[in-house]
Amino acid sequence: MHAQNDIPKAEILKGATIAFDLDGTLVDTAPDLVASLNLILAEEGLPPLPFDDVRKMVGRGAKALLERGFAAAGAPLDADQAPVLVERFVALYLGRIAHESAPFPGVVDALVSLRAAGAKLAVCTNKLTHLSVALLDALDLTQYFDAVVGADSAPAAKPDPRHLLATIAAVGGDPTRAVMVGDSINDALAAKAANVPTLLVTFGYTEAPVETLGGDLLIDAFSDAPSACITLLASCGRRNAGL
Ligand SMILES: O=C(O)COP(=O)(O)O
Ligand SMILES: [Mg+2]
To answer: Where does the chain bind Mg(2+) (predicted)?
Structure first.
C-alpha cells in the first residue's frame, strides 16, 4: 500500500514516538561505508567490491558488513581476525563518516514538521552508537532527536524487537503509539515483533524488493513521511480500540 493523501488530523502525532532507522532511511551513508570497506579490503590485499553490491549489504551493523564484504571478496573472515578488522574498519569509517554521506531529500523538513507537531523522535540503528552520533553531529541532525540507540546500546539489535522497544522507552514513549520508519527487513521484523506499524522507504538498502518486506506503508519520498506516520498512528489507534 502506498501513502494516501486523504490525511487524518495531525494532532495524533502529539506525544507519539517516531523511531527512525539511520543508514538507508535518514542518511545515504553507502558512499562512505563502501569506500571504508574497499579501503580495508585493499589493506588486506583484496580487490574492491562494486558499489551496488555493498550498498545492499548495509543494515546489520559493521561486523556483518565486514563478514559479507570479505566473503564476497573471496576471503571469508575467520573468528580470530574479525575483532581486529572490525576495529580497523570502524576507525577508517569514523575518519570519513560524512565525506560523501548526506540526508535523503526531504529528511530535514519532515523531522522539523514531526517535531513541530509534538512527536518524540528517536534513531534506532544497527550502527554503533558513537558512529551514529558522529554522523548525526556532522550533518547537523542531532538536534532533532530525543534519543539515539545504536546496536551496542540495546539489549539486542534489530531484527530483535527489544531494540525498538528500548528506543521507544528511551524517549519515554508508548509502543502502542509509535511508528518505525526504516528501509530493510531488519526494521520490518523488529517492528512487527514489537507490534509497531512499519513505514518503509523505497530508496534505501535492501537485498529483497522492498515491497516484499512486510511494511504497512511504503513511501517513495521523505516528504510523505509525516502524513504516512499520521495514517499509521490512526490505524494503530483503531486496532488498539478493537475496531
Ligand atoms: O548496518 C549498519 O551499520 C546500520 O544500519 P541501520 O541504520 O540501517 O540499522
Ligand atoms: Mg537501514
So the answer is: 21, 23, 183
